[in-house]
Amino acid sequence: MSITKEAVLKALSYVEEPDLGKDLVTLNMIEDVQIDGQNISFTVVLTTPACPLKELIHNACVRAIHTMVDKDAQVTVNMTSRVTTMRQNRDVLRGVKNIIAVASGKGGVGKSTVTANLAVALARSGAKVGLIDADISGPSMPVMFGVEDSRPHVFQTEDGRNLIEPIERFGVKIMSIGFLAPAESAIVWRGPMASSALKQFITEVDWGELDYLLLDMPPGTSDIHLTLVQTLPVTGAVIVTTPQKVALADAQKGLQMFRQPQINVPVLGIIENMAWFTPQELPDNKYYIFGQGGGAALAQKHEVPLLGEIPLVQGIRENGDQGIPAVLQTTSPVAPIFEQLAESVARAVSIRNNVAPRTQVVDVKS
Ligand SMILES: Nc1ncnc2c1ncn2[C@@H]1O[C@H](COP(=O)(O)OP(=O)(O)OP(=O)(O)O)[C@@H](O)[C@H]1O
């Protein structure tokens, strides 16, 4: 009896996407089923290019076909991806699927370093990525991407609007107040001016189609945070902390800020930066100089995942200062750590898109 498309889909309906807890057929992840005798091919559309479960899903598909359709079939599983979104009303940032706020309670915990590396790692996995340096009082992205001297062009659209072209570097589209004003004058961008500059970044920049737009938030809690949630529906927030008690206490405040009823942005997870110190010359040694397990405990307490633990390594600081994010140093042990972080964040976004309610733009009256 010849193999039918229905039989193939039936078999694949027994393969579960482990993170999303539903089968591949229900999730509309199977496309382009082709059958030629005993040769069966189809495409699995994953929800993130950086999917850590790729191989597992691939093997489960082959097994399902062999068990339920034909044990001798030649199975070709093509893997591709289409990042999911829950955004329906796209009045702002029309082409952007997911907006991720990267926040910290305390300053100096490495939030910008983590954001820069996360953006590059996501882009390297095949996603379309943008980055807004919303840390308006201390923009650091121009330095971290080695584009301090770049100035974005403004162009006019067909309907007569002026749009800013973001600066593109290492596959990431970047917008920073640092491109518009020299670093030493950053102090003037405060309060309402900062908020209105930030709104401009959101609405008057030609972001095009993006899978992920990362927002490097200012540390702490401020008007800027409110501006952000007032202006756009943030998909979720990630909180960067270091293991010290003071940093963890502030990270908790940051986390709770997103969870306030009038903000109500889901927290995707915690990233512990400077989790341990590793000397360059002794890469296998770990020294927990700031304490151990704080990020994991915070994540557990608030029932969110610990998305990654990044060591304190001299090279990360040096690469940041040189304008080449550490994840690009492919021979360094740090690169896979940031790659894994990107996988975890992308995974958390697709889980959030599958289960949590859509984030509403909050109407906060000041
Ligand atoms: N894992 C790390 N290993 C080594 N150095 C790091 C690491 N993370 C960050 N740094 C360094 O620590 C300093 C502060 O980092 P960064 O500017 O990213 O922090 P931040 O939290 O964004 O700061 P701010 O609160 O000022 O915005 C930088 O010099 C950076 O290179």
Automatic annotation (TrEMBL):
Presence of keyword Disulfide bond: no
Keywords tagged on the record: ATP-binding, Hydrolase, Iron, Iron-sulfur, Metal-binding, Nucleotide-binding
Domain of life: Bacteria
Residue ranges of every copy of the MIP18 family-like domain listed in the record: 5-77
Binding, ATP: G105, K106, G107, G108, V109, G110, K111, S112
GO-annotated biological processes: iron-sulfur cluster assembly
A GO term for molecular function: ATP hydrolysis activity
Pfam families with a match to the protein in the record: FeS_assembly_P (PF01883), ParA (PF10609)
Family as reported in the entry's similarity comment: Belongs to the Mrp/NBP35 ATP-binding proteins family.
Complexes and interactors: Homodimer.
Function, in words: Binds and transfers iron-sulfur (Fe-S) clusters to target apoproteins. Can hydrolyze ATP.
Protein name: Iron-sulfur cluster carrier protein
